[in-house]
Amino acid sequence: MIAKVIMLIVFFGIMIAVGLYSRKHATNVNDFVLGGRTVGPWLTAFAYGTSYFSAVVFVGYAGQFGYKYGLSATWIGIGNALIGSLLAWVILGRRTRIMSKHVKAATMPDYFGKRYDSSALRIAASVISFVFLIPYTSSVYNGLSRLFEMAFDVPYAVCVIVMAALTCVYVILGGYMATAINDFIQGIIMLFGIVAVIVAVLNGQGGFMEAVFKLSELESDVAVTMGQKGVFASFFGPDPINLLGVVVLTSLGTWGLPQMVHKFYAIKDEKAVKTGTIISTIFAIIISGGCYFLGGFGRLFDSPTIYNENGGIIYDAIIPVMLSGLSDILIGIIIVLVLSASMSTLSSLVLTSSSTLTLDVIKASIMKDMDDKKQLLVMRGLLVVFVVISVVLAINPPTFIAQLMGISWGALAGAFLAPFLYGLYWKGVTRAAVWASFACGVGITVANMFFKFIASPINAGAAAMVAGLIVVPVVSLITPKMKKEKVEAVFSCYSEKVTVEQKLVLTEEEGK
């Protein structure tokens, strides 16, 4: 217990110290929200990765999908790395940085307002962001606090409140730069921690081969492969179709999440984009791949505590049960690992929510003459409000962690992914198409919450994203186009001439 407490005290001390150090980088709105757009590749890549993976992945998703799909759940981690990180950086990174700076957008709703010349779209996007980031934040608190209960025997509500307060402090102090520096420190802890946990857990089962053998002896209880042995140790697992839905939601979904795309706004230069792409992808392979790989052995850790009074599985309890038999030192490492993952995600979420509401609703539509000082004050105040609402919801969560996150990701990515992506590349996207995407993403997710026409919120979220990608081009083709001069002015940023070193680009003559 002493070792675990010391680790936590050191961890919290570092986080607060970084917040205090970063105060000098948070003296105006641009610095507080974007770090002055001077964030280098390592900080940006780790900020992206640590915002991506939190206690939701480690406790909720790894536990639930590892139990359901066995070792094939590792495909989710691979999808996260290749689609959610590598392709996201390649397709979105550079263009997001160029266009967001050109139109002077600091948030995703601000991008929608300026790219499509519509203050109504900006306000709608801001409201959607604020409302649906709350369940995501609650799910992070939920997963984090379950591990604290297991390690320290501290009441769940106390854990939630303490985590919220600490996150609040360092974000309020240092803004985006504080979160970026802390994300880097937390990312290093996550990388070493996940490797140590996997080795320790598998050793407890007699090693990797022995653990796989035990897994292969289990019979499937999934409807499509009922009674079949070996599916939990197989390549595609017992239910590949639903597994694909999880891969789509957790991988493609990041392309439309405000707190993820926001990282591209703050990139420093071209080198930062190229280096950040590589670092972010490797980080995702190790962290996400490691989490789902570990979760794949969940069925080997049967315990009364993973069942409710009706005999159903409490998925959020699976990973804590897997870890409960480890040594105190290892449990301390795990706590700091999950704390690192979660606080980085929480800081990103609360910063995104408060900045969006302040800049895109209050400053843009209500108090247009607010100076930088007042904007920072309002932003910090709303940050506290957002945290309080999330804590209230987290203390009495309505459903499992994965379902909470599925609702949030489904609505946000379903609404934003298609108009954001198409808007960076295609001049033909119309305002009506953006409204249709917003209605489609939120509509499918909310309707499914009440009518359950798609059994899994995860699959509903994936369906909302795919629907948006179809709806936007179709509606754009049949609705009135935007004024040509407005669109050309936005896209002119891609045509600006820049000087590049010859070692990076061949001239036309040398290429012949």
Helix/strand layout:
Layout: H1 2-21, H2 29-34, H3 41-52, H4 55-69, H5 74-102, H6 108-115, H7 119-152, H8 156-203, H9 208-216, H10 240-252, H11 258-265, H12 270-295, H13 318-323, H14 328-366, H15 372-395, H16 401-425, H17 431-451, H18 457-478, H19 484-491, H20 508-511
Helix pairs in contact: 1-8, 1-14, 3-8, 3-11, 3-12, 3-14, 4-7, 4-12, 5-10, 5-12, 6-7, 7-8, 7-14, 7-15, 7-16, 7-17, 8-12, 8-14, 8-15, 10-18, 11-14, 14-15, 16-17, 16-18, 17-18
Task: Please tell me about this protein's structure.
The protein starts with a helix and ends with a helix. The protein has one domain (2-497): Sodium/glucose cotransporter (Up-down Bundle), CATH 1.20.1730. It contains 20 helices and no strands. It has 512 residues and is mainly alpha-helical. Helix 1 (2-21) packs parallel to helix 14 (328-366), helix 16 (401-425) runs antiparallel to helix 17 (431-451) and helix 17 packs antiparallel against helix 18. The model has no long low-confidence stretch (mean pLDDT 80).
Question: Which terms summarize this structure?
Answer:
single chain; 512 residues; mainly alpha; Sodium/glucose cotransporter; 20 helices; 74% helix; globular
Q: Please tally the β strands and state the result.
A: 0
How many structural domains in the coordinates?
1
CATH topology, what is it called? Sodium/glucose cotransporter
The count of helical stretches stands at: 20
